[in-house]
Design a protein that fits this description.
Blueprint: H1 9-31, E1 45-50, E2 53-56, H2 62-81, H3 101-124, H4 128-131, H5 135-148, H6 150-153, H7 177-186, E3 188-192, H8 196-215, H9 222-235, H10 237-240, H11 265-274, E4 276-280, H12 289-303
Antiparallel strand pairs: 1-2, 3-4
Helix pairs in contact: 3-12, 5-12, 7-12, 8-9, 8-11
Amino acid sequence: MESQFTSPFWGYYIIAIVVLSFLYILFLLISQNKIKVKKGEEAQTMGHSWDGIEEYNNPLPRWWFLMFLGTIVFSIGYLIVYPGLGDYKGWSFDGKEPWSQHNQYKWEVEAAEKETGALYAKFKSMKVEDVAKDPAAMTIGQNLFNTYCIQCHGSDAQGSRGFPNLVDTDWIYGGTPEKIHESINKGRIGVMTPWGPQLGEEGVKDAAHYVISLSRKEGFDENRAARGQEIFKANCVACHGDKGQGTMGLAPNLTDDVWLWSGSEKGIIETITSGRHNQMPAWEGFLTEEKMHLLTAYVWGKSHPDGKALPTDTAPQIGTPK
């Protein structure tokens, strides 16, 4: 409990405040209910008068008094069922755990999963490729994607700066159903070393122009690109390959026109100079296996509209400079 973070005193402190508040309210209510007027008697005045209007010393209306007592009893019962007394955890009903915000959320999730369990189980028993052809499954997959994924990958799944496009055929970690599921389940961490301190400003520019030349026929300095090729061979082929085609699961393809960060000269220089660090969270333990299966099918279906595997799912393809 939060109150135990510093001292158990605070739990008792809250209990004391609540109990004393109830006692004070009861005392106040009873002390103001001493006036009694018998039937036929006239209530006395308090001796106060404003513009000829006198204040009568009437007793509390019986219905109001009983209603007030009822609210006190209700409040006590509420505090027994729902934790409101320091570290007291509440009352347990039907063998369930006592109420808490965490337990309430857990119960709602369990109820929802029980309701959708049969449907999810049906799709879980199907191959990803077959699930991707089912309109109902893709609707569920889209709803899951909209709940958990659009913050990074966008509502159209086309990504944004620093977050990959999921509807094209360009994959860093693989586009097979197994690899997509692995990415969702285990998450991914992508790191590129900053080369600015080692290459220097001019070396970085030379390397950047060579990288630009891999995917374009123009827009780069040929002299810089020639020098940059030697820098690339000495430092970059281990990850990006001897032709810049990339390595599945390690480094992106530099020969196409797909860029996670930026394909401009400034953006490439920034990437080489400072490096990059990307992380996708692992959804294992948060999403059920059935939900991850549907998400896998949704992503695979969006990137494979023809429902067929593609060569780029398992290996980067060298692009033609544009």
